[in-house]
Amino acid sequence: MARWIVMNLPPGWLLAGLVVVIAGGTAVVQMLVRHRFPRLRQGRHNEVAQYLFPVVGLVYGFLIGFMVLVLWGQVNSADQTTRNEGAAAVQLARGRNVFSSAESARIRQGLLEYGRAAVAEWPRAAVGRTTPEAENALNRLHRTYEDIKPRNDSQRASLTSSLASLRELTDARTVRVLQARTNTGPPVSLWMVIFLNSGLVLGFSVIFGSEQTRMHYGMVGAVSALVAANLFLVTELAYPYLGELSSSPEPLNAVVQVLSSPQ
């Protein structure tokens, strides 16, 4: 469900929706509580609430901070994998000029076909699904290097280095696709813990006694916006290849732009 939301909702709409739903829903609950239990306004229970609320807030802050740290690490790992793939393609592009003009042209064409296909398949690859075009382009690139017959020591050394870069490119692509396929976001049990802690934070802010109605609603609204922002951040970071904060195909696109420029 969360993956579908990230795939189909713009980040601005998702954040605004979370703020409206959480703040609005909490305001309705707050209104009902203040109407049903008017004695809460006197704040006689605030001593207990002031003792428990910092504990709940501390646990909530630690949980969200830990989640953001872990998820941000996954995004950085995805970025590094994509950069490795692009860097390997750049190394192949730089080493092609050692070979004959015909072989260099075939290498350039193979890299262009793979880069364009990999960029075009990104929306599918972001959820772990590949396209035949990208797979076939990579296979043709492998065959291109297999057909090269080095004529001197310089070409033999360059071919050895290029084959190593090609293996790095292939490995990085495999890791990228597997990461996107296997990373389905936090498990249901962890989402339940996040929602439980969020509910406790909102609940304590609602029952906190205050005779000044506007100040109480403002305080609860601020806490609701904070909870909504934290849920938005966790949701956006949960999938390293989806959303506004995810990895992008820019390293692959940069290779295509370099090879497409006039020689």
Could you walk me through the main structural features you see in this protein, from its secondary elements to its overall organization?
The chain has 263 residues and is mainly alpha-helical. 79% of the residues lie in helices and 0% in strands. It contains ten helices and no strands. It has helices at 2-8, 11-36, 46-95, 101-120, 122-125, 132-146, 153-182, 188-207, 213-237, 250-260. α3 packs parallel to α9 (213-237) and α4 (101-120) runs antiparallel to α10 (250-260). The longest helix is centred in the first third of the chain and has 50 residues, at 46-95. The chain is rod-shaped, with a radius of gyration of 27 Å. The model has no long low-confidence stretch (mean pLDDT 84).
Keywords:
263 residues, mainly alpha, 10 helices, 79% helix
Element layout with pairings:
Elements: H1 2-8, H2 11-36, H3 46-95, H4 101-120, H5 122-125, H6 132-146, H7 153-182, H8 188-207, H9 213-237, H10 250-260
